[in-house]
């Protein structure tokens, strides 16, 4: 991902009269403080814009699902008294929908089968297009989406305009793995469309995926989305909080205190401890994205 440069072929500008936002955690570990920051920001931003706020559990990657983390996510939504405006959906139940979209993409010759093993691909993150013209059978192979040599730009509400050339920066990317697992990219794009999402608020670790998702959405003629990527929460050691570095699971018995810390970490005015529902209402009333810091450091924060 790099700053805006000269030539650009596809500029995305989303203009929406209504707002539908979402919080879409993956149950690959329990929710941690970084997830709470994303939940609070997406919630406040939707509500201050009189929008809806939906929750979607991104559990397509079944082998990576962490035991009980789905239950933990749902108990957190409850304990922090977030109120989703529609029933929570689970991506693992939606395989047939994703399969249909893959079929449409196949009809339009937008995808192809790839037989490259992890060993062949090595550490090269930009796929060279090795299997693009091999016309391999689709069964039991990974499925990749063709990308073109063009600059894709979008205006992020916090990060400014960002552009990327899919061919040179990322390469044809996987929509379905050889083991049959639907990729995050495909499931996100399809569900954002089907749920009528207009605004995405999420962590900046997902920035690289955004141009992939914009590209896939444009091939399917889905409406453009409005993006805001939050700075990542860092721990005392300067590492981003993640399931990989064993960020501590949110303690639902400390919901008001954790909520207070998350609101502060987002640069918003302090809110007194109360029932989470009331604290969230206050956070919405005073929500100001201009106060979100460039980097979120959690030194000394209660965790
Ligand atoms: Zn290949």
UniProtKB/TrEMBL annotation:
Entry EC number(s): 6.1.1.-
Q: Where is this motif: 'KMSKS' region?
A: 240-244
Q: Cofactor comment in the record?
A: Binds 1 zinc ion per subunit.
Cofactor(s) for this UniProt protein = Zn(2+)
Record-listed L-glutamate binding positions = 22-26, 58, 184, 202
Q: Where is the Glutamyl/glutaminyl-tRNA synthetase class Ib catalytic domain?
A: 22-254
Q: Does the keyword Endoplasmic reticulum apply?
A: no
Q: Does the keyword Metal-binding apply?
A: yes
**Protein function:** Catalyzes the tRNA-independent activation of glutamate in presence of ATP and the subsequent transfer of glutamate onto a tRNA(Asp). Glutamate is transferred on the 2-amino-5-(4,5-dihydroxy-2-cyclopenten-1-yl) moiety of the queuosine in the wobble position of the QUC anticodon.
Name of the molecule in the record:
Glutamyl-Q tRNA(Asp) synthetase
**Species this protein is from:** Acinetobacter modestus
């Amino acid at each position: 991902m790099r700053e805006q440069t000269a030539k650009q072929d596809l500029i995305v500008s989303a203009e929406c009269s209504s707002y539908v936002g979402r919080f879409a955690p993956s149950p690959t570990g329990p929710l941690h403080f970084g997830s709470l920051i994303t939940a609070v920001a997406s919630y406040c931003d939707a509500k201050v814009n009189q929008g809806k706020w939906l929750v979607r559990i991104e559990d397509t990657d079944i082998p990576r699902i962490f035991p009980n983390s789905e239950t933990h996510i749902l108990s957190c939504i409850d304990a922090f008294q977030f109120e989703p405006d529609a029933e929570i959906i689970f991506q693992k139940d939606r395989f047939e929908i994703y399969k249909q979209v893959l079929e449409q993409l196949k009809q339009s010759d937008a995808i192809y089968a790839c037989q490259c093993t992890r060993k062949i691909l090595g550490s090269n993150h930009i796929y060279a297009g090795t299997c693009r013209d091999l016309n391999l059978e689709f069964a039991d192979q990974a499925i990749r989406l063709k990308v073109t040599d063009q600059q894709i730009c979008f205006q992020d509400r916090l990060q400014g305009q960002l552009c990327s050339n899919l061919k040179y920066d990322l390469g044809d990317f996987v929509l379905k793995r050889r083991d049959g697992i639907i990729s995050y990219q495909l499931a996100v794009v399809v569900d954002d469309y089907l749920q009528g999402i207009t605004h995405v608020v999420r962590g900046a670790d997902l920035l690289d995926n955004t141009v992939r998702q914009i590209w896939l959405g444009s091939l399917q003629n889905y409406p453009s989305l409005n993006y805001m990527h939050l700075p990542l929460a860092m721990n005392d050691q300067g590492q981003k909080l993640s399931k990989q570095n064993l960020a501590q699971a949110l303690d639902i018995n400390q919901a008001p205190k954790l909520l207070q810390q998350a609101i502060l970490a987002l640069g918003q005015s302090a809110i007194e401890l109360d029932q989470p529902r009331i604290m969230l209402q206050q956070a919405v009333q005073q929500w100001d994205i201009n106060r979100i810091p460039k980097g979120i450091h959690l030194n000394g924060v209660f965790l």
